[in-house]
User: What shape does this take?
Amino acid sequence: MTDEQWDQPARVSVEERLAAEALIVDVDGFEGPLDLLLQLSRTQKVDLRKVSILALAEQYLAFVEQAKKLRIELAADYLVMAAWLAFLKSRLLLPPDPTDDGPSGEELAAHLAFQLERLEAMRNAAAQLMARDQLGRDFFVRGIPEVVTRSRKVTYSATLIDLMQAYARTRTKDEFRPFVMDRDSVLTLEQALERMSGLIRFAGDWTELASYLPDGWTLDPKRRRSATAATFAASLELAKAGKIEIRQGETFAPIQIKRKPDAI
Amino acid sequence: MTEPNEATEPEAETESLFEAPPMGDQERMVEAILFATAEPITVRELHTRLPHGCDAPAALEQLQKRYEGRGVAVVKVGEAWAIRTAPDLGFLMQKETVETRKLSRAAIETLAIIAYHQPVTRAEIEEIRGVSVSRGTLDLLIELEWVKFGRRRMTPGRPVTFVATQSFLDHFGLESARDLPGLSDLRAAGLLESRPPPGSFDPNGSEGEDEAAEDQTDMFEE
Amino acid sequence: MTEPNEATEPEAETESLFEAPPMGDQERMVEAILFATAEPITVRELHTRLPHGCDAPAALEQLQKRYEGRGVAVVKVGEAWAIRTAPDLGFLMQKETVETRKLSRAAIETLAIIAYHQPVTRAEIEEIRGVSVSRGTLDLLIELEWVKFGRRRMTPGRPVTFVATQSFLDHFGLESARDLPGLSDLRAAGLLESRPPPGSFDPNGSEGEDEAAEDQTDMFEE
Assistant: This one.
C-alpha cells in the first residue's frame, strides 16, 4: 500500500483503522469479490454450510463502506457485488412478495453459499494436488533415455500398367507437342495489313479487295477464308486511318477499295 | 538369459498363429522399453514394438509386481505406462530436481478446477472462481502441457472446453483422473455439479446439463 | 553434505555415529540414482549422494546381481555405473516403418525403356526419353534390383548396357521379357494413340526382332 494510507488523519479510531488496514492491506490479494466473501465468511467461524449469508452480506457491505471512507478505489466487480448483496439483503429481510415469480431471497442466498463452498472445495483440492509428490521434485524420469532409432524403409511400387503407360509415353513423345493454334492456314491481320500497306500505293483506281489476297491463299477454301477475313479487316483498318476508301455496290457484291489521293 | 520360471502362462501363446515369446521374455522386453524412455508409453505402442503375439498388459502387470518396494516403480499414467523413481527417494536427487516455475494462485486454482470439472469451459472456470481467467493463466497451463483443449461444448457458441492431460497425471503421479484426491467426496457433496444461479438464464440449458453430467461420466469410463 | 571419502572404506561405518541404512535400502537408493541420473555415475559420486555410511560398491554388486537376466543390466562404463538395455534386446530400440512410394515418372520411364530395349546403353535411354537420365534414377532401379548391368557394347567407348532382372519379372508378374506387351498391344489398349514415328524401332515388331530375341536370351542365361 502507498504511504498515503498510512498518513490518514485520525478520522477513524485506531482500532477501526487497524481492522480496516487488515483488510485493505490484503485487498490486492483478493481474487475478486467471491474470494473476499469467502475470506469474510471465515470470520463467522462456522462450517461454510451454516454460514449466515445475511451476516456475510452485511460484512461485505461494511467492508465496501470502509474502503470508500478510506478513499480506496475498488474495482467495478466489487461494487457490482455490493449492489447485488444489498439487493439480496433486502430480499432476505422483507417478507416475500407473492406476485414476484423471481427467485426468492433464500434461493439466491443458497446459491451464494454453494458458490462459496465450491470455491473453498476447489482451493482445498488445489492445495492437496500441489502437496502430492511431483515429477521432477519427488520422483524422477529416466535420466539416460535411449534413443529409439526410427529407420524408414521405403519400398517402391509400380504395376505393369504403370510400366506400359510409361513406355507408351516415351514412344508418343515425338508426336506430342503442346497445344497451339495451328497457324498454317491462318493469315493474321498483321500479315494482311503489312501486305496491303505495300500494295495500296500502286493501286490508283477502284480494285476488288479479292485481288489483294496473297498468292497461294486463293485455292484452299480454309486458307482463302482466313485470308479474306484478314484482308477485309486490314482494309477497314486502312480506311479508318484515312488511307483508303471502300465501297460495295450492293449486298454480297464484290468489295472494292481505292487509295485516297492525298494518302501516301 | 531368460528366466524359465517366468513362462508360467502359456495359454495365450498356444492359440496364436505366431509363436509369441515366453511371458518371461515379454516381461524383459517391456522392461527394456520402459527403461529406455522418459515418456510414458501406451500399451498400443508397446504392441507395435514387441514381437507379434505379445500380451503387453499381462507383462506390465508382472513387471509392476516385480518392482514393488524397489527403488523405481512401474506406474500407470492414464492409458500409458512408465518407470519412475520411488517418491520416498526424492531426497537423493537434488541434482535431477527441475526448478519449476512457481505457479500463481490463479494458475493452481484454475488447474484444479479443470482437473476436477473436466471438460470445463472458460465461462465455467470463471463462474467457479468468481473472477475472469486471464489468457496468460490458461496459456501457461497449456504450455506446461498439463491442460489441453477438449471437445467443444454442444451449446450456443460452441465454447471450447479444457481437459487435463497425460502429462498432468504423470506430473502429479496420478494413475487416472479418477484418482484425484478427494474426488468422490466432492462429487458426493454435489460440488462438481454445474448448478446455474437461480432464476438466471442458464446458458447450458437442460441439454447442456445432461451433457455435462455425461462428460463427467466419460472421464471415469476412460 | 557428508564427506565422501570417509564412506569409501567399509570399516568406517561401524565407527560412524550415523547408522547407515540397511543394505536393502541402500540398494534401492542406488537403483533410483542409477535410473534417474543423466550420466553414468562413479562410486565416489554415489557416496556423496547416499546417506552417510553407505557402501555403494556392495549395493552396486547386489543390484547388478538382481538385474541379471533382466531386460536391463547394471553395467560399468569406464569408472562409472549405469543401467543399460540388455544387449540382446537392442532390436527393441529400433522402430522400422515401411513406406511405399510410387516410382517417379523418370524412373518408371527409364525402367520401361530398359525392359523393352535391353540391353540398352544410357545414351540410348536418353535418346529415347529425349532427356538425360540422372545417375540417381539408374541407381535406384539397380538398388531395387529391377535393373542390372549387362555386357558392354562392342562399340567405341565400350559403353555399359542395362538389362532387366529376374526380380523385375517377378515384380511385374512376367514369365519372361517377351511377355511384355508389344506396341501393338499398347495401341490396342489405347495407351498409344498414333503410329510410332516412321523408322522408329519397335522391339516387338518384326524389325529388330532377331536382335532383341538374342539379347533377351542373354538375360536368362545368367
Summary: The interface with chain B takes residues 31-35, 77, 102-103, 107-108, 110-111, 114-115, 117-119, 121-126, 128-130, 132-143, 145-146, 148 of chain A (CB under 8 Å).
